[in-house]
Structures are given as structure tokens and as C-alpha cells.
Amino acid sequence: MQDLAKKQGLTNRALAAAVDVNQGTVTRWVKGEAAPSPKYIARLAELLGVEASELYVVTETARNLAYYRILAGYSLAQLAPLIGTSPVHLGRMEAGRSSIPPQVRDKLKEHLNIDEDRLAKAIRRSQTRRRAPVARPLEPYEFVPAVQPTRRELIGA
């Protein structure tokens, strides 16, 4: 991002002003200490004259629904009403914990500007990246009564 800004003759201060954040935020982005939110990725890409995918680089195998949502410049809260669902439900779909109805699939393709094949792959990737269940002990905890020390042990003899 910094190289692209330099090519455009933009300092961190100018870049911050152009996307409406403070200079410290841009500095953290450049250092890799923070990442821009979806709306800023879209603004930055437009300002720097590049595709959002140049600023938000993800390997092919990690391109799930969240990736395409971010590239399109949407947060969960922004995209959810456009496709007729809640942000919580959309988050579950992105995490692979909820199925995606056909009418929602059609709206996702429209708003994310992707075809059916790319959407299907993104959904599969979302489903395979589910969180592992929390580990539980195999055996129930065993209650072991505490042994009371004898008087001699207390005195140290």
C-alpha cells in the first residue's frame, strides 16, 4: 500500500485525509499492525487506482465468502440487509454454520459480483474452515477426597 501511495505522490497524512481516518491508523496499516476494514479497502483501492484484491491478498484456498464480501467493500452489517438476512445469520453462513437458501445465493452473486462457480467454491471453503469443537475430557472428573494431615505432619516432626 505504501509503495502504491508513493507512486501517486501521497504521504500517509494525505492518504489518511483522503479515506477519512487519522494518520496513526494509516501508519498501523502500513506497518501491518492493523488491517483496513472493508469500506476502507474499497476506498483505498479506488484512490490508488488498483483492484481491491491487490490490497487484500489472500491465497486461492482461503477465498471464502468473507473474502469476497470484503473485496466488494461490505461489512456484515452492510451486506446482510441487501441479501435479506441479519448480520448474525450472514456471519453464520460465512463461518459454514448455516446453509444458504437459493434466493440468498442469487443476491450474494449479484452484490459480490461473482459467478455461481466462484460462489460455490467460496461456500465450500467456508464450510471446511469451521472451528474445531472445544476439547472435552474423555473421562468424568474423579472426586478424590483430600487426606487430612496428621498432627505430627502439621508440627513438622
What is the helix tally? 11
Task: Give me the count of strands.
Answer: 0
The CATH superfamily name of the largest domain is lambda repressor-like DNA-binding domains
Structural category: mainly alpha
Tell me what portion of residues adopts beta-strand conformation.
under 5%
What is the string of SSEs from the N terminus onward?
HHHHHHHHHHH
Major sheet: none
Show unreliable segments. 131-144
Mean pLDDT, to the nearest integer, reads: 81
**Count of structural domains:** 2
Task: Quote the CATH topology of the largest domain.
Answer: 434 Repressor (Amino-terminal Domain)
Q: What is the overall silhouette?
A: globular
Ends apart, CA distance between termini: 72 Å
Architecture of the largest domain in CATH?
Orthogonal Bundle
State the share of residues found in helices, binned by percent.
55-70%
- Give the class-level CATH name of the largest domain: Mainly Alpha
Rg estimate, integer Å: 25 Å
Keywords: DNA-binding
Protein name: HTH cro/C1-type domain-containing protein
GO molecular function, one term: DNA-binding transcription factor activity
Organism: Mycolicibacterium obuense
